[in-house]
Amino acid sequence: MSRQTEVEQFAVDYLPKLEDYLRIPTISAQNKGIRKTVDWVKDAFAALDADKVEEWHDQGGNPVVFAEFTGNSDKTVLFYNHYDVQPPEPLAEWHTEPFEPTIVDGELFARGVADDKGELMYRLTALRWLKDHGGFPVNLKFFVEGEEEIGSPHVGLYVKAHADQLTADACIWETGGKNEAEHFQVTAGMKGIVSFDLNVQTADADIHSSLGAYVDNAAWRLVQALASLRDAHNQIHIDGFYDDVAPLDAASKAAIAAMDFDGEAIKQNYGLKRPFITDDPKQAAAAAPTITINGLSSGYEGEGLKTIVPKSALAKLDCRLVPGQKPEKIAALIQKQLDKNGYSDVRLHYNLGEDAFHSDLNDPHLQLAKQVGEEVYGDGQVRFVPMMPGGGPAKFFDDALHLPIILVGVNYAGSGPHAPNESVRVADYQQGTYYIIRLLEEYARV
């Protein structure tokens, strides 16, 4: 039996010891399960004889769990994970119980198994294996937070306050895996985000719709304001929106050119009913900022009829940002554009923002992550991704710690994080366990 086969068998045999983590409904948006989950994570590190396990409360919000292990070299790797998950709704669309981990046809289904509890689980599995087979190749630190699904509002404060404890040579971030072409991805960054509400009120009360002949309608007012920010060809019309976009470096351009993009597979995965909104979706996914309506609400939305002119309307939006763009500035530009377009009564409420982040693809740690990937997943089976379309608080770590950040994981294109029937494939979980072991072994030699 090869070493890789042995590790992969261990990973699947060890999985039941960790599945209770998936059974806890850790929903930060509803303040559920936090205490029980923090205790589980602390106990998991303690069971591996961590040199230090701490629960940080000093910057507010849900606790951060910090753990530290001494390795066999002077190199140090910091891991980032989060323990909170999205709500499971809509429950009727789940084929299994969301908080009862269930394997069906080689896939492990549970809320949070892809984002991000399963990611910590395979890392804990790798630690167990290493501990039982000669020890850890490098010093290890873990930063596990509980507010990622609500925008990580306190992470920047924790990283800055505890920067001395978090020093490392590199950071391995959560999330990643295989794309639609089944190629393993090594990702070097993530887009930023600004999330905000737009609301407008046109009357003190809802009005009989017969008066719609002469009174303004909040729903129409908001829809027209939204349409003024992006045209029918999906071009964003916000003055200054693109002014601070940093140009792509040569390595990023080359990586984007080499990226896979199977448009038909993506359309099938998501059941898309409309064409893509850009002629170059690969470039857009990796390097283009966006403005997206997340939801609209106005007037009567129940069953049956209620013929009214709504008094108010609300829209939730986000913009995915690229390096150089600042969330607060983008929000201000949007309000300024609405005012200019004649919609000064449509007011913006800022919810949260995170900066984009991008590591240097030429960094030795990034290059080694790809090299080890070729060893584990096969020659030609690994792709560099300069930035993932989603976001996260990585920029706080870069600003405070100045270290390369590498995003790798055990998801696949059909994992469906945030959606019903979220899953990872057991085979990917097994491979990912071996991959992280080999990566830590190689990092000891950097």
From TrEMBL:
InterPro entries: Cyt/Met_Dipeptidase (IPR051458), Peptidase_M20 (IPR002933), Peptidase_M20_dimer (IPR011650). The keyword Hydrolase applies. It comes from the Bacteria. The keyword Hydrolase applies. Keywords: Hydrolase, Metal-binding, Protease. This is M20/M25/M40 family metallo-hydrolase. Gene3D superfamilies: 3.30.70.360, Zn peptidases. Residues 189-343 form the Peptidase M20 dimerisation domain.
